[in-house]
Amino acid sequence: MTFGLPYVPAGQVVGLLGGSFDPPHTGHVQITKEALKRFGLDRVWWLVSPGNPLKNNGPAPLGLRMDAARALMTHPKVTVSDFEVQAGTKYTAETIRLLQSRYPKVRFVWLMGADNLAQFHQWKDWQEIMERVPVGVLARPGDRLGARQAKAARMYASDRIRSEASRGLALCDAPAWCFLNIPMTAESSSRIRESGHWTV
């Protein structure tokens, strides 16, 4: 195992869903299951981050978020990991860089909700992410049009593959990305925190 991550046979495809998961919720589960099916992934790793550089307030303690994520996401093809804490990476680009060096024969796909695509250009070295791995974007409640008109979507418009070809995304050389409309749940981490149902 590498930093607590499981062995992966050469040639398999792993989807990476990163975030603070503060808290994890059914929306995360939904996009994970859809990604497994629609992108033809062999497995998905939830990368529970120590924090979000774009947010002022720190998340709940990592152990609490990890326990909640593992209790919620029980799919046999999904691993919940604190890889970024163990590896000491702070930003997604360096996390992907390290994973690719540790698993040179594995194909990775970065997964994100459409809400993240809208502000993806604010991420550190976001263009490196696009150039390193295919990106699968799944619709989340909110302004889908805003996500499709995001800076990243415009800059990489010619690298977008049609949703009908989504199962081939992992086989594409980066940059390549695909936007999928899926059935949506309105649940979100911020809404749960605001409701008081996630207390630390």
From TrEMBL:
Record's catalysed reaction(s): nicotinate beta-D-ribonucleotide + ATP + H(+) = deamido-NAD(+) + diphosphate
One Pfam family hit: CTP_transf_like
GO biological process: NAD+ biosynthetic process
Matching Gene3D superfamilies: HUPs (3.40.50.620)
Domain Cytidyltransferase-like per the UniProt entry, residue ranges: 16-194
EC number: 2.7.7.18
Domain of life: Bacteria
Pathway the protein contributes to: Cofactor biosynthesis; NAD(+) biosynthesis; deamido-NAD(+) from nicotinate D-ribonucleotide: step 1/1
Ranges annotated as spanning the membrane: none
Function: Catalyzes the reversible adenylation of nicotinate mononucleotide (NaMN) to nicotinic acid adenine dinucleotide (NaAD).
NCBIfam families: cyt_tran_rel (TIGR00125), nicotinate (nicotinamide) nucleotide adenylyltransferase (TIGR00482), PRK00071.2-2 (NF000843), PRK00071.2-4 (NF000845)
Similarity field: Belongs to the NadD family.
PANTHER family, A to Z: NICOTINATE-NUCLEOTIDE ADENYLYLTRANSFERASE-RELATED, PHOSPHOPANTETHEINE ADENYLYLTRANSFERASE
HAMAP family membership: NaMN_adenylyltr
Name of this chain's protein: Probable nicotinate-nucleotide adenylyltransferase
